[in-house]
């Protein structure tokens, strides 16, 4: 499959991904995010130790802000570039799409990412649709290969 095919696959009759696949997506993406955050923390600790390695409140707030920005960037950029996939979704054969089955846009990807920052949002996965799906009119589907 060429790169163009990968990014422009059309899914017919989208089937929502089950909760087990969604949990596996979350697990893989959480591991990938923390690995990225660890690397970024090492870089920031070397480049700006006076900001990121202090115990002062301002340093902790700055670190939290950088972590949130990195989190939003991880999901927003990956889902935006790949039309709805993250590392977890690549492994499970799932994809985020609009409710009508069309590919999500960069705007949709970043709205989904920002929604994930809301406290306790991860617990919404126990409901029928997680908040980051319902608030952005998207759904994660199992891809059907033609």
Rg? 17 Å
Q: How does the overall form come out from the CA principal axes?
A: elongated
Count of individual helical segments: 7
The helix content is 55-70%
Query: How far is it from the N-terminal to the C-terminal residue, by CA?
Result: 12 Å
Number of strands: 3
The unreliable regions are none
Mean pLDDT: 85
Strands ordered across the widest β-sheet: 1-3-2
**Percent in strands:** 5-15%
Element order: H for helix, E for strand: HEHHHHEHHE
Main beta sheet strand tally, sense and closure: 3 strands, antiparallel
Q: What structural class do helix, strand and pairing data support?
A: mainly alpha
Number of domains: 1
Present the secondary structure layout.
Layout: H1 3-8, E1 15-16, H2 19-47, H3 49-52, H4 57-81, H5 87-92, E2 94-98, H6 106-116, H7 131-134, E3 138-142
Antiparallel strand pairs: 1-3, 2-3
